[in-house]
Amino acid sequence: MANRRDARFPATWRPPAPQTSNRCILCNRWVGQKAILIVILMNLPTTKLEYVKAEPISLKSHPDFSEVWLHDQISKDPSILGLGDLTVLQRERVQVGAGRLDMLLTDDAESTRYEVEIMLGPTDPSHIIRTIEYWDIERRRYPAYDHVAVLVAEQVTARFLNVIALFAGSIPIIAIQLNALRVSNQIVVDFVKVLDQRQLREDDTGDAGSAAEPDVDRSAWEARVGATLMKVCDRIAQIANEIADPKLELKYKKGRVALSVPGSFFNVLAFWPKKNFIRIRFRVIDPETWVKRLSEAGVEADLKDGTLVLVRLRNSDFEHHEDLLRELIHQAIREKAES
Asked: Does domain 55-200 have CATH number 3.40.630.30?
């Protein structure tokens, strides 16, 4: 070994002395220890994709699969449904006097819960009724969240779509059709969203107040979303009243908080407080410009119907972007007064 070393290194070569707490980041040796690092660069061949014909199969009629198996796959990775980064809150959730909800999923960032009913085979009337019933129970029990009914089935029939069309704008519901495919000795389950009816009717969230929507007091909202978030509503009202004439006041409805002229049924601004943020919409003449400015500043904003700016405000947004938000609020108040 000594001869081999001498053949590779000059006789005068000596390793440098180790330094305290000085290790190589590659091999964790002390600097000074003898080590040879060999780097081999290779052109790794890329794998060429080949076409393989898949065979559609029915999970309901297959002896190796069941509804419980499908529940397990979704629970392991709810993202396969295509609804975003969700977590499983509970499986087989007991509904008093109404059976069990297959799965309750939640998106904490959006304060949204998904009541999911899963079935093998085609949709049938009983599953449609149960899906809507469980959604209604959960939204009444936990009104601080947005709730969406979800029905997953192997075959979403035209009859189902026709029935759901009757509820257009009244019930936020999603229908997902799962397609099971056999490839060699493996199975692929593909989830396809065939109906996404999450947007309620415009008149349910319009500028005009609803006589059917009951009034509540501030304490009811503080119990739902917390006093800290309600202070954000106070701050918006304070900024609006810097230029508003006559002055505006907050009105507390069961489903939203409105900023309006005392005695008027029309809202200047409407808020939808959630647990972690406030959803507020602004009607301005240059919405696309505002969405771009807000997004570049780090404030969550989207464009709706080409005329509305939907903003999701958190308490920290006022700490970092108060001047920008003041400009938007003032513009919305001025344009509302001129309309």
From this structure: no
Range with the lowest mean pLDDT among 2-16, 74-88, 219-233, 257-271?
2-16
CA distance 207 to 332: 13
Tell me the sheet residues that pair with 119: 153
Average pLDDT score, the chain? 80
pTM, two decimal places: 0.54
* Number of helices followed by number of strands (H, E) in the chain: 8, 13
Instruction: Give the CA dihedral 307, 325, 251, 336, nearest 10 degrees.
Output: -40
Dihedral Cα 312, 315, 318, 324, nearest 10 deg: 0
Helix (H) or strand (E) holding 261: none
Q: Where are the domains of the chain?
A: 55-200, 204-338
* Backbone phi and psi for residue 255, each to the nearest 5 degrees, phi listed first: -105, -10
Tell me the pLDDT tens digit for each residue of 49-82. Answer: 888 888 888 888 888 888 899 999 999 999 899 8
Compute the distance between CA of residue 228 and CA of residue 234 in angstroms, rounded to an integer: 10
In what helix (H) or strand (E) does residue 246 lie, and over which residues does it extend? none
Residue 110 — very low, low, confident or very high, per pLDDT cuts 50/70/90?
low
Per 3-state DSSP, the chain is made up of helix, strand and coil in percentages (nearest 5) of 30, 30, 40
Q: For residue 86, give the DSSP letter.
A: -
Dihedral sign, CA of 17, 18, 22, 25?
positive
E strand or H helix at 260, and its extent? Answer: strand 257-260
Its CATH class, for the domain covering 204-338, is: alpha beta
